[in-house]
Amino acid sequence: YAPFFRTQNRMISMDVRSAEMTKYVANAMLATKISFMNEVANICELVGADVNKVRVGIGSDSRIGYSFIYPGSGYGGSCFPKDVKALKRSAQQHGYTPRLIDAVEKVNNDQKFVIANKLVGHFGEDLTGKTFAIWGLAFKPETDDMREAPAIYIIKELVKRGATVNAYDPKAMHEAKSFYLKDVENVTYFDSKYDTLKDADAMLLLTEWKEFRSPDFEELKIRLNQPIIFDGRNQYTALNMPEKGFTYYQIGKK
């Protein structure tokens, strides 16, 4: 145990069942915050509020804080989906219906299609002949992990509607090509984010990689067929995109 004490990491002693439950509950609690904020974002759009301002307001309350209250396209990865399902299953095995956990999972599943629905609202149900640039495939930045990534669901939905997809991710393209999207037609992978813009009718930002934070927006306008951005991570909300000449869609604000 010396290394743990040396780094002053907390060590809490408990029985095995409580330890297992602690792991499940910790991740389910964080997943709940994400789903709750995404639910709030969808309500904000309906009532004319700006979820980005709401986030700042509630985060300033020390009882809430700013962690895990960023709206987006839903959570993915190996931990949150798995542990939410495990906690739900454990409850069901003992005859209990975990209604809140059910809702967390359902909200997250629905949230993965919000950006696709916005795109369909703009371009119409039939996307035949349309091409879309996808920036980001991994479920979060700094990883190649695509497990339960929103990009999987969004790309499949666009292709199902007849679209062609140009995709780029700094680390996850091998995972996409070899497993997660290997059977999906009309998806082309590029070595540069700007190369995906060729013949594209819009750009969709789905993972908040650092290299996507400050792109050359003039380059985007030149390369895109139309200057349209669907921002699934609200990366550009503070930049006043309409003033830059873009039609801009985000989460939680019309």
Spatial ordering of strands, largest sheet: 3-2-1-4-5-6
Low-pLDDT segments, ≥5 res: none
User: How many independent structural domains?
Assistant: 2
| Shape verdict | globular
How would you sum up this structure, described in words?
The chain folds into two domains: 17-110, N-(1-d-carboxylethyl)-l-norvaline Dehydrogenase, domain 2 (Orthogonal Bundle); 114-249, NAD(P)-binding Rossmann-like Domain (Rossmann fold), CATH 3.40.50. Helix content is 43%, strand content 9%. It has helices spanning 2-6, 16-47, 51-59, 80-93, 99-111, 114-123, 150-160, 173-180, 217-223, and strands at 131-135, 164-168, 187-189, 202-205, 228-231, 247-249. Helix 2 (16-47) packs across helix 4 (80-93) and helix 4 (80-93) runs antiparallel to helix 5 (99-111). The longest helix is centred in the N-terminal third of the chain and has 32 residues, at 16-47. It is globular. The termini are far apart. The mean pLDDT is 96.
